[in-house]
Amino acid sequence: GRVRAGNEWVVAARLADAKFFFEKDRAVALVDRREGLAKLTFQEKLGSYAEKSARLVALSESIAAAAGLSDVAAVRSAAELLKVDLATDMVKEFTDLQGVVGGLYARGEGAPEPVWQAIYDQYRPAGAKDALPRGAVGQVTALADRLDTLAGFFGLGLIPTGSKDPFGLRRAALGVVRIALEGEMDPDLLAALGNAFDLLDEKIRTRVDVDKGTAAGPSKQPSREKALEMLVEFLRDRLTHVLGERG
């Protein structure tokens, strides 16, 4: 009985915290929280989450247009709000709920189903067995999110080696491959990767061109062409892994 009472006390306190943060967050619309993303760093050299969000809008729209999606407006709306819940008190307290919280808040504010589901599902698939984001809008924005991350880190030369993958790039690449294989659209991945590097140009503009032998910074940063080549090979390795598991 004491063990049960102790656990109930702990859980009740956490649920009370959640209720407090939920009600406090709901007093401010998601769209009005976008300014808060400027204060959150995505990666030191790749800028803030506000900058990442701007790239996601442009990249998502280009992927949707190339794939012939009719609901580009929904794609844009979802991309604009995709990362906004990172600026909420709920996600600051319960970090595992990022994405989920944004989706619930967007649904509560009357967002169309494809939009709130895209926000809710943005981190799917989290693994080989996890479900994909629901619908084409969610799959486009989830794909854009991962491609932006992959292009940014590969562009900076922060590439996984051996078993080390501190930025979760293998998981991101697996998500790209599974969405491309199993999703509702047929994305042009090479074109999307090119767009991702274009949008990141100012952040990852080559300070060292390894291929041409110029020197102006840390030697580990590859040229854009080399980074793209390595990223394509990285994705191909994930594809080989997925297809191998399927026989």
Multimeric status of the protein = single chain
Strand order of the largest sheet: 1-2
Major beta sheet summary: 2 strands, antiparallel
The run of helices and strands is HEEHHHHHHHHHH
User: How would you sum up the global shape?
Assistant: globular
Radius of gyration: 20 Å
Number of helices: 11
Strand residues, percent: under 5%
What percent of the residues sit in helical stretches (DSSP H or I)?
55-70%
| Arithmetic mean of pLDDT | 92
Q: Separation of termini?
A: 52 Å
Category by helix and strand content: mainly alpha
Strand tally: 2
Poorly predicted regions: 207-219
How would you describe what is shown here?
The protein is mostly helical and 247 residues long. Helices cover 59% and strands 2% of the residues. The protein has eleven helices and two strands. A two-stranded antiparallel sheet has the order 1-2. Helix 2 runs antiparallel to helix 3. The longest helix has 24 residues. The protein is globular. The termini are far apart.
